[in-house]
Specification:
This protein has helices at 3-9, 19-29, 31-44, 52-88, 99-107, 112-117, 121-130, 133-139, 147-162, 189-199, 202-214; strands spanning 12-13, 50-51. The protein is mainly α. The longest helix has 37 residues, at 52-88.
């Protein structure tokens, strides 16, 4: 056993039936990630020991949230592509195209669909901002008073999800302005989820909130470590 593995096992409470699962998890997910989760949970604990079930549940919970966010960020990306494609499929030459989209149009023989599908998400957001007001209003909420900053936060959330960051520990989120957290301004995970939701069509945003809330529910199979989620890490969205 390495010194880092010994560090992880210190102050750890583990059932016999979980020892094999833990050994497999350390191999596949890494020792350092487990140490980070353990130390975060210990900081919230009133005692100096922590159950492995809490660490395993935190990891599974984070992964569920990432899956949900991936689904809805992908929806939003496809939605923005669709708005532009449906509005301009027969009007390819436009003065408001950003340079990246114009380059893609030249590269893909003026095929707007291909050009949009090969456009990076950050450029897609920038292109939506440059659209004429009537089309732009289909993309963004009308009551968004901090559009640039909220879009920048949305891009950073997308990058964190797509690069499989451990979201519950991630500190690279940007400040966004949303109702429901810290007087309407925060850089935490909940604020960034709410920021994504406000850009989604209303019915889709409601479903996203429900899916995030469902992440905390137990779905144990016989082969799983007991679901033992620490309440401090639970994210609840008012749907």
């Amino acid at each position: 056993m390495t010194e880092r593995e010994k560090k992880f096992y210190q102050n750890l409470i583990i059932d016999d039936e979980d020892k094999g699962r833990l050994a497999h998890s350390l191999k596949s997910k890494g020792v350092e990630k487990h140490i980070l989760i353990k130390e975060k949970l210990l900081a919230w604990s009133e005692c100096d020991k922590i159950e492995y079930s809490k660490i395993a549940s935190a990891y599974r919970y984070d992964k569920r949230i990432r899956y949900v966010l991936f689904k809805y960020i992908s929806y939003l990306e496809e939605f923005y592509q669709a708005v532009i494609l449906d509005s301009y499929i027969n009007r390819i030459k436009q003065s408001f195209w950003i340079k990246a989209l114009q380059t893609n149009l030249e590269k893909y023989n003026n095929d707007l669909n291909d050009a949009l599908e090969h456009l990076e998400f950050s450029f897609l957001l920038a292109q939506c901002q440059r659209l004429p007001e009537e089309t732009k209003n289909k993309c963004f909420p009308s009551n968004c008073n901090h559009l640039n900053k909220n879009l920048f936060a949305l891009k950073e959330l997308r990058n964190a999800v797509m690069h499989n960051k451990f979201l519950l520990l991630y500190r690279g989120f940007n400040v966004c302005y949303v109702e429901g957290v810290d007087d309407g301004k925060s850089a935490n995970l909940k604020a960034n989820i709410l920021n994504l939701i406000q850009f989604l069509p209303e019915e889709v945003g409601l479903q996203c909130a429900k899916d995030i809330n469902a992440c905390k529910e137990s779905r144990d199979k016989e082969s799983d470590t007991k679901w033992d989620l620490s309440p401090q890490i639970v994210i609840s969205i008012n749907a």
